[in-house]
User: Which sequence fits this backbone?
C-alpha cells in the first residue's frame, strides 16, 4: 500500500500554484496582505465552485460544456427572482438542480454522449437566461453581498472560502462512502453495477451534485459582482475544465483531485494577475494562460512516464 | 522515501525555479518597453498644450490607470489615442507619475472586474473606467473605493455611488437636432428618426430629448422611425426598406455614426436629399463636405467627442490634488459647424472620428461651472446634469 507516500504528480498542482504565488508576491508585494490576497482571489471563488461541478462530471468520464451557460442562468435568477420573490427564486434554483440530475439519468439511461447533450443544454440555459434578463442588470440580495464581502479574522474571505470549498469537496468525493462509489463509476461502472447499485440513480446523483455546485457558483458570482447578465459566466466552461486538468484530474478513470481542482482554478486566475503585473498586454494573456496549462500538463506527463517506468 | 522520489522532487523544484526565472526576466523586458513607449508618439502633437501651474507637486507621485473595456471601433481607437496624446505630456512634466491605459481582451465585465482589482493591487491612486457594464463592476469599484482609490467613470459609466461619473448630455443631443430642424423648416417638415441600439441608456435618452423638444414645434412631424444600431450598413438597409412607403422627407434625425448610410439609402431611391444631421465619423463628414462643394448642402454635426477620456483623466487628477469635485459632470457635446468643416476634416484621418481636445483648463472650467450650477439648487447630486446642459454649450472651440 503506497497510500501515504504522495507522488510528485499529485503535488504538481500545489507546486505550480506556489511558484506562481511566489512570483506574484515578488512582483507585487501589495498582494502579500489581507486585502491583497482577497483582491487576488475573491473573483475565483465562483470559478472554483464551477470547477468542482465540472470535476464531478469528469469523474464519471463525461464532460459538461454547459457550465458557463448554467452558472449565467443561475446568476440571472439570483439577481432578479431571488431578490423580488425569494421563495420562487429558491424553487427555481432547486428545479435547476433537479433538471441537472434528470439530465444525468437521461444521458446514461439512453447512453447519449454527454458532450453533445450538455452542448445542446448550454443553448437552452442561455436562452432561458436571456428570457429572464434581456439586458444585463439586476441586483444582489443583501445577505449574499454581505456574505461575499465579510471580513473574517486571520485570513481574508477568498482564502477561507477556497479552503472551505476544497475541504468540503475532498470530504464528499474522496472520503465519504458515496463519493468512493461515484469515483468507482468513472473507474469501472460495470463492477459498480455488479455490486448492486442502480447506475442511473448514481449518475443522477453525480449530475445533481454538479448542479448544486453550479448553483453555488452562480450565487457567489452575484454576491461578488452585484449584478449579472445572460452571458456573465460564459468563460467558466473552459476555465472549469482547465482547472480540473491543471489540478491533476484525468478525463477517464475517475481519477480526480478536488483539492487539486481548487488549486487549479486559483492557479489560472493567478496566472492572469501575474501577467497583468508583468505589464503583458491583455491580448497575450489568454495565450499565456494556455501556455501555463500546457507547461503544467507537460510536467505531469514527465512524472507519469517516470511512474510508469518504475 | 526512496532516492528516486527525492530525485523527482528535485526535478519539480527545478521546473518551478525555471518558471519563475522566466517570469521575472519577461517582466524585466516589458518594464523597459512600457517605460519607453508612452512618450514617443504623442510628443509632437501637443507641444505646449499643458501648462504647468504652481500646484503641480500635489499629484506628482500619483499614478492614474485607464481601464477600458473595448477598443474595436474608430471612436474607441480615437479615445485611446486622445488619452495617450494628452496624458503623456502630463507624465513628462511631472503633473502625475503615471497614466497607463489598459484594455481587456474581451468585452466581458468579469474580465474588467478582475482587471480593476489587479490595478488596485498595483497601487494606482486613481482608476478611470470606460465600463463594460453599468452594474456588474460595482463590486470591484467598491473594493477600489474601500482601498482608498479614486474611481472616475466616463462614457460607459458605473452606478456605484462612490464613483465619479463623466457623462454626455444625450437628451440635449436630441433637443438640439429638433431645434436645428425647426430653424431650417419654420413652415413645418416631415422628419425621419434613426434610432440606436434598442434598450440602451443612450438610445432612450436621446430619443426622449427629441420627443420632448418636438412638443414645442407642432409643425414638425416624425413620419417614421427606424432602428439603425449606430451602424451604417444596418441603417442603410432599414432606411431603404421604409422609404417607398413614406411621403416626402425633409430631414433625418440621427444618433451618430449612421448618417452616411442614410445618405446612401436616399441616393439609391432617387429622392431629394433631406437635411441629415451628422456626427463625427470621417466618412460622413467627407460626404457632407463634398455635397457642400457640389450644391451648397447645409447641415450641422453633433457628437460625443472621444476626448471625454481626457476630461476623466483631469477630473481624477483634480480629485487626487484634493479638490472637491461634483460627483457628476456633464461634458458638452461636440459641434461641428459648416464653416469649421473643412478644417476639422483636414485633421481627421480616414476611417477615424473627429475629436475635440479638452485641456486641463477646459476641465477646470467645467468643474467650476458644474459646482456653481449645483450651488443654488437643493438637489446637488442630480441637478448639475440638467442645469449645465440647459445653458448653451460653453464656447469651447474644437481644437483638432
Assistant:
Amino acid at each position: 500500500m503506497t497510500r501515504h507516500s504522495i507522488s510528485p504528480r499529485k503535488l504538481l498542482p500545489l507546486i505550480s500554484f506556489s511558484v506562481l504565488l511566489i512570483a506574484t508576491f515578488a512582483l507585487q508585494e501589495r498582494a502579500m496582505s489581507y486585502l491583497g490576497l482577497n483582491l487576488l482571489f475573491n473573483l475565483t471563488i465562483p470559478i472554483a465552485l464551477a470547477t468542482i461541478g465540472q470535476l464531478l462530471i469528469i469523474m464519471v468520464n463525461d464532460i459538461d460544456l454547459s457550465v458557463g451557460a448554467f452558472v449565467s442562468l443561475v446568476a440571472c435568477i439570483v439577481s432578479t427572482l431571488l431578490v423580488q420573490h425569494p421563495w420562487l427564486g429558491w424553487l427555481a434554483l432547486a428545479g435547476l438542480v433537479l433538471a441537472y440530475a434528470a439530465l444525468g439519468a437521461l444521458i446514461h439511461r439512453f447512453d447519449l454522449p454527454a458532450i453533445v447533450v450538455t452542448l445542446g443544454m448550454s443553448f437552452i440555459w442561455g436562452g432561458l437566461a436571456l428570457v429572464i434578463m434581456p439586458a444585463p442588470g439586476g441586483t444582489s440580495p443583501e445577505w449574499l453581498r454581505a456574505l461575499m464581502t465579510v471580513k473574517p479574522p486571520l485570513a481574508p474571505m477568498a482564502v477561507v472560502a477556497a479552503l472551505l470549498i476544497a475541504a468540503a469537496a475532498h470530504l464528499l468525493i474522496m472520503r465519504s462512502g458515496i463519493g468512493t462509489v461515484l469515483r468507482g463509476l468513472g473507474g469501472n461502472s460495470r463492477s459498480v453495477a455488479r455490486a448492486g447499485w442502480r447506475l442511473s440513480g448514481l449518475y443522477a446523483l453525480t449530475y445533481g451534485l454538479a448542479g448544486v455546485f453550479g448553483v453555488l457558483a452562480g450565487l457567489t458570482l452575484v454576491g461578488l459582482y452585484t449584478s449579472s447578465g445572460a452571458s456573465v459566466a460564459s468563460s467558466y466552461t473552459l476555465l472549469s475544465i482547465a482547472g480540473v486538468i491543471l489540478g491533476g484530474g484525468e478525463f477517464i478513470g475517475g481519477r480526480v483531485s478536488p483539492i487539486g481542482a481548487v488549486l487549479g482554478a486559483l492557479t489560472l486566475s493567478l496566472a492572469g494577475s501575474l501577467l497583468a503585473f508583468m505589464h503583458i498586454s491583455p491580448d497575450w494573456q489568454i495565450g499565456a494562460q494556455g501556455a501555463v496549462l500546457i507547461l503544467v500538463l507537460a510536467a505531469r506527463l514527465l512524472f507519469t512516464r517516470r511512474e510508469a517506468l518504475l | 522515501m526512496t532516492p528516486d522520489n527525492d530525485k523527482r522532487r528535485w526535478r519539480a523544484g527545478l521546473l518551478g525555479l525555471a518558471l519563475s526565472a522566466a517570469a521575472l526576466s519577461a517582466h524585466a523586458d516589458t518594464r523597459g518597453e512600457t517605460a519607453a513607449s508612452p512618450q514617443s508618439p504623442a510628443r509632437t502633437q501637443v507641444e505646449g498644450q499643458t501648462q504647468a501651474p504652481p500646484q503641480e507637486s500635489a499629484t506628482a507621485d500619483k499614478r492614474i490607470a485607464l481601464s477600458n473595456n473595448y477598443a474595436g471601433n474608430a471612436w474607441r481607437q480615437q479615445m485611446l489615442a486622445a488619452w495617450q496624446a494628452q496624458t503623456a505630456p502630463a507624465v513628462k512634466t511631472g503633473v502625475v507619475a503615471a497614466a497607463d491605459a489598459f484594455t481587456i481582451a474581451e468585452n466581458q465585465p468579469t474580465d474588467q472586474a478582475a482587471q480593476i482589482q489587479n490595478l488596485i493591487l498595483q497601487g494606482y491612486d486613481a482608476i478611470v473606467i470606460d465600463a463594460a457594464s453599468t452594474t456588474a463592476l460595482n463590486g470591484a469599484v467598491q473594493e477600489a473605493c474601500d482601498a482608498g482609490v479614486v474611481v472616475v467613470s466616463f462614457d460607459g459609466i458605473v452606478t456605484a455611488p462612490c464613483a465619479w461619473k463623466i457623462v454626455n448630455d444625450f437628451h440635449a443631443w436630441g433637443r438640439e437636432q429638433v431645434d436645428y430642424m425647426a430653424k431650417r423648416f419654420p413652415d413645418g417638415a416631415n422628419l425621419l428618426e434613426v434610432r440606436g441600439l434598442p434598450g440602451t441608456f443612450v438610445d432612450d435618452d436621446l430619443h426622449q430629448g427629441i420627443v420632448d423638444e418636438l412638443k414645442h414645434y407642432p409643425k414638425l412631424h416624425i413620419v417614421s422611425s427606424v432602428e439603425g444600431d449606430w451602424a451604417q450598413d444596418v441603417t442603410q438597409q432599414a432606411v431603404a426598406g421604409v422609404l417607398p412607403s413614406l411621403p416626402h422627407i425633409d430631414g433625418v434625425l440621427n444618433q451618430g455614426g449612421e448618417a452616411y448610410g442614410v445618405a446612401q439609402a436616399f441616393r439609391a431611391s432617387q429622392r431629394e436629399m433631406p437635411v441629415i444631421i451628422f456626427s463625427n465619423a470621417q466618412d460622413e463628414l467627407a460626404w457632407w463636405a463634398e455635397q457642400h462643394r457640389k450644391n451648397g448642402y447645409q447641415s450641422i454635426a453633433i457628437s460625443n467627442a472621444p476626448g471625454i477620456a481626457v476630461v476623466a483623466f483631469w477630473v481624477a487628477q483634480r480629485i487626487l490634488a484634493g479638490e472637491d469635485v461634483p460627483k457628476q459632470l456633464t461634458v458638452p457635446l461636440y459641434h461641428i459647424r459648416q464653416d469649421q468643416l473643412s478644417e476639422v476634416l483636414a485633421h481627421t484621418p480616414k476611417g477615424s472620428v473627429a475629436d475635440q481636445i479638452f485641456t486641463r483648463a477646459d476641465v477646470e472650467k467645467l468643474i467650476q461651472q458644474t459646482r456653481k450650477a449645483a450651488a443654488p439648487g437643493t438637489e446637488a447630486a442630480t441637478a448639475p446634469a440638467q442645469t449645465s446642459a440647459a445653458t448653451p454649450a460653453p464656447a469651447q472651440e474644437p481644437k483638432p
In short: The first helix of chain A runs from residue 8 to 27. Chain A has one domain: 10-303. Chain A touches chain B through 60 residues (CB under 8 Å).
